[in-house]
UniProtKB/TrEMBL annotation:
Entry annotated with the keyword Protein biosynthesis: no
Protein name: Methyltransferase
Record-level GO BP terms: rRNA methylation
Keywords per UniProt: Methyltransferase, Transferase
Species this chain originates from: Yeosuana aromativorans
Pfam families given in the database record: Cons_hypoth95 (PF03602)
GO MF annotation list: methyltransferase activity; nucleic acid binding
Amino acid sequence: MRIISGIYKSRKIVAPKNLPVRPTTDMAKESLFNIINNLFYFDDISVLDLFAGTGNISYEFASRGTEQITCVDQDFGCIKFINETAKAFDMSIQTIKSDVFKFLEKSTLQTNIIFADPPYDFSDEQFAKISQLVFQNNLLLENGILIIEHSKHTNLSGLNHFSYSKSYGGCMFSFFEVD
């Protein structure tokens, strides 16, 4: 994986092969960040990266100037890798080792963008629970968005607060906003 833009543009990051992850492809990530770039100034926002995995999305935000980034993942190896990479690049990324659902149930952290990249084989109920907990617990700041990455075979358009989806190959991003 590589960082697409910003101060670390073109830097490659190689994650250990033993991590239980499926990093967002460079093509899909570049398209996603083109959308976000039209909605926000990167240096003015805060980001919560759920199911952070390798930290791929968080590194992209940090490279573009975002300083308030929190990653949540339950895998110790993922959290360790994110911490090591953030330190090597001098990125201000905070990590939390936790089950994402337990974190969302208790969290009071409000951010501009919440990005969730759960396993593609999640059930419809598990995808719905992410959105439900984010909005029920008021975790988005005014004009904030929740972005859920999922397979093109999953349809989240029936969930509350759904706004739109964008498809890139086998990957989709569904966007949710406060009504």
